[in-house]
């Protein structure tokens, strides 16, 4: 998977969804494709309106329904403390196509998973105990730490988010992070873009 710098984003921090302020992302909102996930170009559609004029609480209220808690089961090496070698983990994801059920997340969240499920946002139940939905892994890119999941549903999912364009990001702009850090499900924090050209090994963020 060969993506230009404009498509890059650390999902655990933020997707700079167009409904939020700004932040790096690996797809353009006016393109709506994820290039070459496992050698496939994926297209998606999201009908979320522009939320940039809304207050921060209103933006969060609109974005949270597109946020998912990812739960995984993994098979590791047996040990004295864990004879079976089985373990689990949690992560964050975002619905990017509510009609098709596509969800984007970090590759490291699902890497090595034997079972992947998601919990959809419920404003009355945000303690990791919502309804679980099994999902299938559509494709991954370990280099860019990106993975796409698919939730099969008879009805469209409740909401979705679009990607922003990292070419438009400016140092010092506001950015929101929404997700499930360390199992603190459906949390929000706020800050600024500290730099637009961070060098982390072989890639610029």
3D structure, described in words:
By secondary structure, this protein is mostly beta strands. It has two helices and 13 strands; from the N terminus they run ββαβββαββββββββ. The chain has helices at about 55-65, 105-110, and strands spanning about 35, 40-45, 65-75, 85-95, 100-105, 115-120, 130-135, 135-140, 145-150, 175-180, 185-190, 200, 205. Strands 7-6-3-4-5-9-8 form a seven-stranded antiparallel sheet. The longest helix has 8 residues, at about 55-65. It starts with about 30 loop residues before the first strand and ends with a strand.
Structural class: mainly beta
Strand content: 35-45%
Helix content: under 10%
- N-to-C SSE series? EEHEEEHEEEEEEEE
DSSP helical segment count: 2
Computed over alpha carbons, the radius of gyration is: 17 Å
C-alpha geometry: globular
Strand order of the largest sheet: 7-6-3-4-5-9-8
Low-confidence stretches: 1-31
Number of strands: 13
Query: Kindly state the mean pLDDT as a whole number?
Result: 76
Q: Termini separation (Å)?
A: 17 Å
The main sheet comes to: 7 strands, antiparallel
Secondary structure layout plus pairing:
Layout: E1 33-37, E2 40-43, H1 56-63, E3 67-75, E4 86-97, E5 102-105, H2 107-110, E6 113-120, E7 132-134, E8 136-141, E9 146-150, E10 174-179, E11 187-192, E12 199-200, E13 203-204
Antiparallel strand pairs: 1-2, 3-4, 3-6, 4-5, 5-9, 6-7, 8-9, 10-11, 12-13
């Amino acid at each position: 998977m060969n993506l230009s710098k404009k498509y890059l984003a650390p999902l655990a921090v933020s997707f700079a969804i167009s409904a939020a302020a700004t932040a790096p992302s690996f797809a353009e909102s006016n393109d709506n494709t994820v290039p070459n996930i496992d050698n496939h170009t994926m297209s998606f559609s999201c009908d979320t309106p522009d939320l940039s004029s809304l207050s921060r609480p209103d933006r969060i209220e609109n974005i949270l329904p597109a946020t998912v808690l990812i739960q995984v089961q993994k098979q590791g090496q047996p040990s004295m403390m864990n004879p079976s070698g089985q373990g689990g983990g949690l992560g964050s994801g975002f619905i990017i196509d509510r009609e098709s059920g596509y969800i984007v997340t970090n590759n490291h969240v699902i890497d090595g998973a034997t079972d992947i499920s998601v919990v959809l946002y419920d404003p009355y139940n945000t303690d990791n105990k919502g309804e679980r939905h099994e999902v299938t892994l559509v494709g991954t890119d370990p280099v860019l730490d990106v993975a796409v999941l698919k939730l099969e549903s008879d009805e469209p999912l409740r909401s979705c988010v679009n990607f922003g364009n990292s070419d438009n990001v400016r140092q010092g702009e506001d950015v929101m992070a929404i997700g499930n850090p360390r199992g603190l499900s459906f949390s929000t924090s706020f800050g600024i873009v500290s730099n637009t050209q961070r060098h982390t090994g072989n890639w610029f963020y």
